């Protein structure tokens, strides 16, 4: 096999195949981690929304959730 004007032997071809396999495995692991992070952030946002709705219902029901009020916390 010739690549860029250079003839590749069996060891070099095997090295390229193993390197590409390692890249594919790494990309699959990265994709799984990214999907898990996306799922967890969505779950956490849903949990926070449910909790704020419960707190609003306990405080009177007609008041908006605390997150839509004035800025709070160390940044505002």
Description:
By secondary structure, the protein is mainly alpha-helical. The termini are far apart. It has one helix and two strands. A two-stranded antiparallel sheet has the order 1-2. Helices cover 66% and strands 5% of the residues.
User: How does the major sheet shape up?
Assistant: 2 strands, antiparallel
- Helix tally? 1
| Global mean pLDDT | 85
**Helix and strand string, N-terminal first?**
EEH
- Spans of 5+ residues with little confidence (pLDDT < 50)? none
User: Alpha-carbon distance between the termini?
Assistant: 64 Å
**Care to count the β-strands?**
2
What proportion strand?
A: 5-15%
Overall structural class, as computed from helix and strand content, comes to: mainly alpha
> How helix-rich are the residues, as a percent range?
55-70%
Tell me, what's the shape?
rod-shaped
Instruction: Kindly report the oligomeric state of this protein.
Output: single chain
Record the strand order, biggest sheet.
Answer: 1-2
